[in-house]
Design a protein that fits this description.
By secondary structure, the protein is of the alpha+beta class. The chain has five helices and nine strands.
Amino acid sequence: MRPDGGPEQAALRSFIASLALYDAFVAVTGRSSGLALKWPNDVLLNGGKLAGILLESAGTSRGVNSLSIGIGVNLLNVPEVVEEGAVRPVSLLSETGAQVMPEEFLDALAPAFARYEAQFTTFGFAPIRTVWLDRAARLGEVITARTGTTEHVGTFESVDETGALILRTSEGQRVIPAGEVYF
């Protein structure tokens, strides 16, 4: 894509992609039970990682000339090698019994993404944030967020208007703009 705005706006597309994935999974299975969104870029099913999102951009500090959104989905199988400490991978087939082919899934994903992208460009991040929080994994629970070599343990309170994770720790509120979350 060639989005308007700077890197901060482009980064919010991970929320759009995760909502589109959620809706696509519901569309192809007819169920939402067990689905949840993990900050900043994963979709979980029954506690396992079903899909992940990776954003790559090119541009300057003033703007993003191009944005690629990579999405990996475990439709039929799971990766054989998983990094230590990662959420266990699951497949749509193993968890729901639904055998969905990539083309069928893409037919559900593309219009869902277009719908959320239109909402985002028309109304901004606020409505996206609201829906995302309604589907967030472990909201209100204690989680661990890692940023480089620093670890923060606290209660997942929210996501702010920039997409940053809000944790309530023993030292007070922490705003974490980027990192990894562990349960």
